[in-house]
UniProtKB/TrEMBL annotation, chains A, B:
This is Rrf2 family transcriptional regulator. It comes from Nocardiopsis lambiniae. Pfam families: Rrf2. The lineage of its organism: Bacteria, Bacillati, Actinomycetota, Actinomycetes, Streptosporangiales.
Length: 157, 157
C-alpha cells in the first residue's frame, strides 16, 4: 500500500506558498523548480489542490498558484484527501455475503466486525492527520531553520 | 491509496480458523470455498500469513492451514503487515535534498517535519490496528451471531 508521491510534493508546496507574500501567485514551473520536480506532473496535483479549495489558481502574465485559505485552516488530511481521494485504504468487498448465513440485503460494509475494526484504525489515522495543519508544520520548520522562509521566498520570486 | 483485497480475505480466514478444532488443518480450497474466493490467489495470501507465523502450513492428506498461535496474540496489525509489508504508505522521497539549502548528507526521512508529521499519523493507524486482535473480533462476532462458530465449523469440515 503506497501513497502517491504527489502527497509529499503537495505538502511541501503548501508550506512553501505559505511563505510567499499574500496575494502573490507562483507559476507551477517555479514551484516545481524548487525541488527539481517534473512541472507537468506537479501541475496535475496543484490542480487537485485547487479543486479542493486549498490553492487558488489564476491565469495571465502574473498568474499561478497561491494558498486558498489560511495555513492554520489547511490540515494534512485536507491535502492527503485532495490528492488521494476520500476513500478508505481498506475497501470492504463484503465477502460475508457469500459466507455461511450471508444475506444479500445486508450492507456488510457497515455491519461486519472486521470492516468496523479496520475503519476504526483508519479513523485514528485521519484524526491524526486532521490535527496537524500547514501552519503547524511551518512553525516547526521555522523553529529549526529560521532561514527557510527567506530562502524559499527568494527561490519562488 | 488502496489496500490489497487479501487483507479482508486474510482477516476473515483467521477468524474462521479460530473456530476450528485446535490442531485441525484446513485445505486452502476449503477456506476459499467459504467465501467463494479464488483458491490460488487466497493461497498466496495464506502463505504470506504462514511466513509471518500467523498460520502454520502442513502438507499431506490431512494437510492445510491452521492458526500458528493464540487468536489473542494475533493483532490486526500482524495480519495487515503480513499481507501489505511493513513499509509506511507515505514514503518520503527526501525532496528537501533538492530544495533551498538541501544537504546531500542529511537523511530527511528522519529530519523533515512533513515526514515526521505523516509518520505520526501512520503510527496512530498502526497503534489502532495493534490494539485489536483476532480474539477481539471473534468475541464481537459471537456476541452478535452466536450461530457463527458452528456454521463456520460445518463449512470448513
Amino acid at each position: 500500500m503506497k501513497m502517491s508521491e504527489g502527497v509529499e510534493w503537495a505538502l511541501h508546496t503548501c508550506v512553501n506558498l505559505s511563505w510567499t507574500d499574500p496575494g502573490d501567485a507562483v507559476p507551477a514551473a517555479r514551484l516545481a523548480e524548487v525541488f527539481s520536480l517534473p512541472t507537468a506532473y506537479l501541475s496535475k496535483h496543484l490542480q487537485a489542490l485547487a479543486r479542493a479549495g486549498i490553492l487558488i489558481s489564476t491565469t495571465g502574465p502574473r498568474g499561478g498558484f497561491r494558498l486558498g485559505r489560511d495555513p492554520a485552516s489547511i490540515t494534512l488530511l485536507d491535502v492527503v484527501t485532495a490528492i488521494e481521494g476520500p476513500e478508505d485504504a481498506f475497501r470492504c468487498r463484503q465477502i460475508l455475503k457469500d459466507g455461511p448465513g450471508g444475506r444479500p440485503d445486508v450492507d456488510y460494509r457497515r455491519t461486519c466486525t472486521i470492516s468496523q475494526a479496520m475503519r476504526k484504525a483508519e479513523l485514528a489515522w485521519r484524526t491524526a492527520l486532521a490535527e496537524q495543519t500547514i501552519a503547524d508544520v511551518r512553525r516547526t520548520v521555522e523553529q529549526r531553520d529560521p532561514t527557510a522562509p527567506e530562502a524559499t521566498r527568494e527561490r519562488l520570486r
